[in-house]
Each structure stands twice: as C-alpha cells, then as structure tokens.
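Risk register update: the risk of archive-format incompatibility is retired. Evidence:
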Amino acid sequence: MVAAMRDTVSMDSSVSDEEYQERILPHVSRTFALTIPQLPAALRIPVTNAYLLCRIADTIEDGTMSSAAARLGLLQRFVAVLCGQEDAALLTKDLLPRLSEQVLPAERDLALNMHRIVRVTASLREQERGAIRRCVELMCGGMHQFQRIASLRGLPGTRDLDEYCYYVAGVVGQMLTELFCAYSSAINLRRSGLEELAVSFAQGLQMTNILKDVWEDRERGACWLPQEVFSRYGVDLEHLSGEQQGAGFDAGMRELVGVAHAHLRNALSFTLLIPPEETGIRRFCLWAIGLAVLTLRNIERTPGFTSGAQVKVPRSAVAMTQLLSNFAVRNDWLLRRLFERAAAGLPRARLSAPRAPDRSAVSHAEAAAGYSYSASPVRQLGARRGEGSSRR
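Archived output:
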C-alpha cells in the first residue's frame, strides 16, 4: 500500500513551488518526510530543497539509460542549472526521455518539475544557497566517480569507503551544519565542534544503509563494502553469494557494524551540541540516529540475512524511538542513557584521529562537476576518534 502510494503522483500545477516541495517529499522519501517536518519552519524549506536537489542528482546518475560520459554531462548541466547558467527546461527536455523504466513516477515528476525546485533555491538567503550548491556540486562530481567504477568486487579499502561516504553523505552533513549555523546565532557559536563531527555523523547513517542494503546493491551490480576488511577473514567479495556467506563474511560485517556504531556515537555528540531549546533540530537528528542504531542491532542479531527487509526496524520500534526521543529531547544525560541502552551489545571500533582530506580527490570531484570551489577545504574526509575511544 505505502509503496503504491509512493509510485503515484498527482500534483496540482497551481500550487506554489514551496508547496510542491512539501507535497512531493513523502513520495520520494518516507524517512525525510518524517524528520524534516520536525525542523523549525525557517529550516524546513531549505532542507527540503537540498534533499530534493540531491534526489534529482541521484536520479540522473542511477536512473538514466546513458553512458558514463553522457551521465556526467547531464550532472554537469544540472550543476549549471543550479548556478543559473542553464535553463532547467532544456535539461528536463533532454533528461526525461533517458530515464529508465525503473525510475519511480514520483522521481520522474520531480525531474519534470526541476525548475520549481531550482526556483526555490534561488529564493533562499545567500548563505543557504551557497551551502546547498556546494553540497550538490561536490556530490555530483564525487558520486559519479564512484558509480563509474562500481562492481561486485567492492571498494579496495576503508579509505575508499570513507571517501565514498563523504561524497554521498558527508557533504550533506556539512551542508546541514551550515544551514543550522545560519539559522541560529546560538548554534553558530558551536560551529567548530559541529563541523568536526558533521562528516562522521553522516558516515554513521550512510554506513548503516550500506550494510542493510548490501544484497540489494549487489543485485544492481554494485558493492560498497571494503575488500580490505573482508580479506582479513578470507572472503572474496566478487564471488560472494547470499546463500554461501560463511563465518568470514559475518566477521567482516560485524567489524563494519562496530565502525558505524562509533560514527553514530559522534552523531549523538553532534546532536548534543545543538542547544536544548532547539527541540526541532534535535528531534530531526535523534530520530535518524535512533533508527540507525536499531538497524545496526538487527544486522548484528541476524547473521546470514539476505535482504534489507529482514533487518528493517518495525513500525512499533520507530514509534517508540520517536516517543522516547521526544520525551528526553532537552535532557542530555537521559539521551545518552537511551543511546547506551539501544546500542548495548554492539561492537564498537576505535576510529582513527581526524586527518586532512585528500585535496586532489576533492579537486577531481569539483572538476568532474564542472566547477571549482574555492572555500576552505573539507575538514574531515574520513573517520575521527569516537567519543571516549549505504546507498543514498
């Protein structure tokens, strides 16, 4: 029933651009349709806008029947549209015939109404526009690099996993930090701490999705697990099958669960830096963290699972996560206790110390997206030390 609703879109062309954003959101993302409305009103429009732009980029990369070079050309044109250098209608005209049959009607409708989303971007404050454009531009360049080399062999090493997570999720964490700081002077006073944790926060969520969706990704010919980890347990990812996983694969998955867990601890630290009176922003973060921790717990308790549906968090647990988060939202001590209870029994990795990003890799992504970003470099491309210690 829910899937059918997401596949059916009926939009009144007379609604405003902002209202179109609000109406299309639940058709393309159940999760963000739950969390974004928790944000203060002044943040809902830019955060919704940013998500929908990223979703359009994702549709261009994953949903077009085109060569890698042609997809890159479309992504570069999308960046040009976002920067006001090309007409959205021209790109839409070229894009729609190339969309595959697997693209949902809602995603197709979003591409058709690209001009509306871009108009909302143009109406935002300069600081908001800059943060969103940087996020989308880096994502378009970096995402394409990794999609071009995607295979069942997985990623070579953990550094590659860090970089992949950065381009498909970390840039979003940085963008949200910028939007939060632009919204509140009190939050802006904590900018340094938030920036140190933003990429790790996003990586925790992304890694959870990668682990949950490993078999669905393999059906599409991609694997985002690091071969470096699984080689230690005698596992060749290229020849892996759901029916013959083995103890070595379980051990590698458990190790990565520990890494994702450590990143989610940083996500909680990020959230607790948000002033307690900003309950909407805290709820936005806490609901996502809680569901990710519960998903990791399901993965840990279900070795040998062959589908993301087998480790999906049930609706009753989703509702309880929301209820408990809302009850404790202003109480840092209680939130820590709830996290510890939810994460009890999960392995926990010791993350590496913060390191400077590979600037050449970021520059390459910028070049791929067709632009050059001259602001300060990314603070953290990979992991950072934990507190006390997937696909989009």
